[in-house]
Amino acid sequence: MLLFVIPSAYSIDNSKVRYYSVVEVTETSLNLALTSLENQDFDSTKNFIEFGSTHFSKNLEKLRNVDASLTDEVHISLLDLQTRQLNPENLSAVSSEITRIVEIFETIPEDEEYNPNVTVALLIIVDEQYENFETNNDEFSYQIAVGFMERANQIYYSGTEYNERQTVELNSFFNDMFQMVKDKDPYASIASTNIWVQRDLLGTDVVGTIGADSSSYYVVIKELYAELMIALDEGDYKKAEQLGIEAYLENFEYLEPEIEVADAELLYPLEWDMREELRTMIKNYEDPDVIKSFLVDSIIPRLDTAEAKVAELRASGVVIAEVFANKETKPMGSASEGQKQEVRDEIDVIREQLMATEIFYELGDTQAAYASARSAYLDSYEYVEIPLRAIAPDFTFEVEYQFATLRNQINDGATIEDISTTIISLERSLDESERLVSGTGTIAPMIAFISSFAIIFREGLESVLILGAIITYLEASRNQKFKKYVHYGIGLAIGATAVTWVIASYIIEISGANRELIEAIAALSATAVLFYVSFWILNKIEHKRWMEFVKAKVFQASAAGGASVFVMLSFFTVYREGFETVLFYQAMFSFAKYMELYVGLGFIVGMITLFGVYFGFRKLGKRLPLRALFGLTMGIGAYLSIAFLGNAIREFQVLDYIPYTSMLGTIPRLDINVATMTGIYPTLETTVGQIALLSVYLVASFYVLILRPKRQKALDSMRKSRAEVDEQQTN
């Protein structure tokens, strides 16, 4: 049976928690009885009434401590109801009595603060009854399990807010668990899912066992070790290894948080011996007596010590969950350089193993898939955990949970889609793990600053020059009355850009499971737009061509006349660039994690620089080095588009839309933050894409900057020579 965990976050008033929980269990039972009565299923009606009444009676004293008068009234009414005969003649009377008791419950003021605990109480009933249904083939237990699952589902969706990650997980959990109950899946699968639901509901994630009675885990571990020693005596080393892994992976993992609080120095060598030393001895087929001695004389005594120290802490009144939650952590990037490199290496191995897991599973080789998934965690991620746990313990346990979910899905025969979704989630977590361990460094923030500066400068330059030319023209032609309409258009465009930013952010925020896909599409779109504008700039790089373009714009506006023309001209001039800016910054923010400050600074410095360019244009006019400025923005656009393309391809690789061909060892493996800011990853697909785009830029630049001017010069020379010949012939 699952334990009813009440963590410190929800332990403001444990009596209230109990009160609301018992009331809800009883009320749910009565509502199920009412439905059965309407269907004239008298046996089920009687059973539901008895179930609710019995549950209420067992908690009388605790209920009276909160509301004695209501408790006594309901108690008597339930006893009377329980003893009533059920038949078609008194159906209406019984229905009225059930309704009356339910209405009494409904007079109790609701407090959403207790919703998670109440939902957990219902899920505990689901667990108990479903186990009884599977064990004893008790159909009524199944009815209770389904009914209480439905009610738990209703309460969950009725109110309590969770963060984005928890919401996505809980929605998935509830949907999966509800379907498993309805499909009558094996109890083990449902119980496992139920555990994770309860932990997320109570805001404890994988550390939800902290504060609960964990003695059963110690018992199970020792029982598994006893079986392991028997397997050794029988010469079955493979079975012994499996039992050792189960003892550590499926049991000791849940004890780690509380042991860490009780005695961290005891935890780490014990964890190492259970995970590594014992497995190594078994895999090397060492003498059974040596292995058994290691268990009996080293591992098991320290387990006993750990259990005793945890019990001693609890007995002294220490709330272990609170200590763990408030445990001092190290800052991001505080790991040693050696640890950072080891983390990067292990993460690369894990990625390969996760890819293999998915391939094996798709081919139907679940055994190989499970082995690969287990190895990814046991042989690699455990080394990532060492520095990561000191920085972000909650996140560490969350990733452990993701690995456990993957293994359970493989064992339960989940769809390949579910397996892929979990692997994608793990891929994201691996990136986050590397960021937390490595920190941002110095190179990546500098690139983030320069890239952000480059975006706003590149996008704003065209607008600044066009608007500067319009203002200058209006002043020169003594049409200054139209200047304010230009400013109106600029104001409207800035407002429209802000609205566009809010809408884009909202779409990404609510995208949920499709968020990664949207971000990938945004990066690819940014690449396409930058490609276009870079070549547009390249074609205007000559001062003469640019001035011809600007004069045409101003002439069109002045020729049309009217204030609205100048409003629309300035609006579209600014908003076009504003729209592109939103697209580029949205793409950048999705990759520049933990470097948002530097992106913001780049934006501010870029805006200041643009004002400088504007006033410089007003003062210098033709003397402004347009060729240099346009050449710079073209180069910026080329770099950003190449970086965005690399990131877009990688996103599509993670989502399994594009193949992943590793080139580790051939292409340098960059720090994750530097990689995301440059789009350079050690894969064949990202490399080919970026080289192809770079080649297009180089060829086009060579043509526009070198080949085309030479041809134009030669053509001009030929025309001049021809003109001279014609003049001579005429003379």
Furnish the topology, listing elements before pairings.
Elements lengths: L13 H25 L3 H17 L1 H5 L3 H16 L7 H16 L8 H22 L2 H18 L7 H19 L4 H15 L13 H19 L3 H13 L6 H28 L4 H28 L4 H6 L11 H26 L3 H26 L1 H20 L3 H23 L4 H34 L6 H27 L5 H25 L3 H18 L2 H29 L4 H25 L5 H29 L17 H7 L5 H47 L1
Helix pairs in contact: 1-2, 1-5, 1-6, 1-7, 2-4, 4-5, 6-7, 6-9, 7-8, 8-9, 10-11, 10-13, 11-12, 12-13, 15-16, 15-18, 16-17, 16-18, 17-18, 19-22, 19-23, 19-24, 19-25, 19-26, 20-23, 21-23, 21-25, 25-27
What does this protein structure show overall?
Helix 17 packs antiparallel against helix 18 and helix 25 (626-654) packs antiparallel against helix 27 (684-730). The chain has 4 domains: 8-203; 208-327; 337-437, Four Helix Bundle (Hemerythrin (Met), subunit A), CATH 1.20.120; 443-701. It has 27 helices and no strands. By secondary structure, the chain is an all-alpha fold.
User: Based on CA inertia axes, which overall geometry fits?
Assistant: globular
User: What letter string, H or E per element, gives the SSE order?
Assistant: HHHHHHHHHHHHHHHHHHHHHHHHHHH
Biggest sheet features: none
What is the total domain count?
Answer: 4
Share of residues in helices: over 70%
The separation of the N and C termini measures 113 Å
- What is the chains' assembly state? single chain
Relative strand content = under 5%
Tell me the radius of gyration.
Answer: 35 Å
Q: What's the average pLDDT? A: 79
Number of distinct beta strands: 0
Q: Supply the number of helical segments.
A: 27
Contiguous low-pLDDT stretches (5 residues minimum) are 1-13, 204-212
Structural class: mainly alpha
